[in-house]
Backbone:
């Protein structure tokens, strides 16, 4: 009987540690504590770990959106510079 109880205690401790790690993973992906990833992982175990792993990375998504916006702004800036160069060339006096 003592072996069963000690095994259950060890399993509960491992589950708590894993749930804590999965909460840190969810936080690293850009989710705050309102996602309740700790409770999900603690209650449903392995399926909760898969759920947290499958969450989309909000930080990477935000970085990609920032890069796309910077590329669009750079393209617009290059188009404006090209327009200025063309206008300046058109205004030169004939030789």
Residues:
């Amino acid at each position: 009987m003592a072996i069963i109880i000690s095994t259950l205690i060890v399993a509960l401790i491992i589950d708590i540690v894993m749930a804590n790690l999965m909460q840190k993973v969810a936080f690293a992906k850009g989710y705050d504590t309102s996602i309740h990833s700790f409770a999900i992982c603690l209650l449903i175990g392995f399926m909760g770990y898969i759920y947290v792993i499958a969450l989309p990375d909000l930080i990477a998504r935000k970085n990609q959106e920032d890069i796309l916006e910077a590329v669009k702004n750079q393209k617009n800036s290059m188009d404006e510079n090209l327009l200025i160069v063309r206008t300046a060339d058109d205004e030169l006096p004939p030789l």
